[in-house]
Design a protein that fits this description.
By secondary structure, this protein is mainly alpha-helical. The chain contains 7 helices and no strands. The longest helix is centred in the middle third of the chain and has 50 residues. The radius of gyration is 32 Å and the shape is rod-shaped.
Amino acid sequence: MNEKDIFDKICKGDERALEILYKKYYRMMTQMVMKNSGTEQEAKDIYQEALVVFWQKSVSGNLTLTSKISTYIYSICQNLWRKELDRKRRLSSEEKDSIEYQDHDKVERARLINECINQMGDTCKKVLMYYYFDGLSMQDIADKLGFANTNTAKTKKYKCKQKLDELVKSLYSEKDFLD
């Protein structure tokens, strides 16, 4: 079946002609996407979407082919893939901006809390730094600071954390910590 016959049948709504077209150009169309940073699944999706566009225009009677069907569908695939790549770039850029903002926000919060910790007494400062920043266990903290046992370290950490919370609340408002 030649291209004119296939096109005529598609214009009349013959889905078998569309299947023939699908199989005939599948490899060429999907390779274009895969050679341009696409996965096989993305290539398949783009090709199917291009065929839907081709089908709708053909069946509506609004399509006058001035080139080969393969050339027309190839250009649809290219345009769809370019739009998809642009969408991916925008999303990637937005994610990077969001991550940079979040990282800056975390750094700023850590700076404020560190500032408050530095205003506390030496023992509280050490307990909180060991626990929250160094990730030491209560047993390690008890050993380092000469506490009788882990329960003493836990109690000290709890009391120091309460003091830190009060200090932060007295120096900063909630909006300094909430988005």
